[in-house]
Amino acid sequence: MVRLMMAVTTALLWLTLLAGGSAAIEIGTPAWTMNGVTLYEGPGTEYDEVGEILTDVEVRVERCMPIWCRVNAGDQRGWMYRLALSFGQTPLGPLEGPKHNFGSGAGTVCLYTGPNYTGESLCRNSGFVMRDLLLDGVDNQYSSVTIEGDTSVLLCRDRLFRSYCERVNESQPKLHGFLDNNVSSLHIY
């Protein structure tokens, strides 16, 4: 009986190990390298080089400091210069980001801290621009949005309309994964 239990345990362990490689969970925010970059052991060029990543390679950003981000790409992991990253679903250079010359309409946009239009709200009319929600203490809090009238809103993941941005034209009970609890700037048209 003991041998049978050991055999079953060993078989389950092997199955778990074999499945682990093909069922890896991707952790971190998706981003793209805009240039070929060198990876460092720590956040700065004074650290040892640990690898290189080519241009337009998708990476996962684990965390960022003001100038450096810790990323992983396949079997490589290290720190790279933050401005060499483009956050979002596709690689975009610094001049290829969101265009802010959309037409304006008349209407109201309300952001809610909870999904399905629940929780505290921030409601503003067309023409309202907020470059840094952190200044008002409401950064990275919103999960849903309602849009009333002939208007839309540009929601961006970072302050000053940097990083991933998305123009929302209709109410959404749950914001896109890149924006859910990650809105830091907005422009209502």
Structural write-up:
With 189 residues, the chain is mainly β. The protein has 2 domains: 27-87, SH3 type barrels (Roll); 107-188, Gamma-B Crystallin, domain 1 (Sandwich), CATH 2.60.20.10. Helices cover 11% and strands 38% of the residues. The chain has 1 helix and 14 strands; from the N terminus they run H-E-E-E-E-E-E-E-E-E-E-E-E-E-E. The strands form 4 sheets. Strands 6-5-4-1-7 form a 5-stranded antiparallel sheet, with no helix packed on it. Strand 12 (153-156) and strand 13 (165-168) form a beta hairpin. The longest helix has 21 residues, at 2-22. The chain is elongated, with a radius of gyration of 22 Å. The protein starts with a helix and ends with a strand.
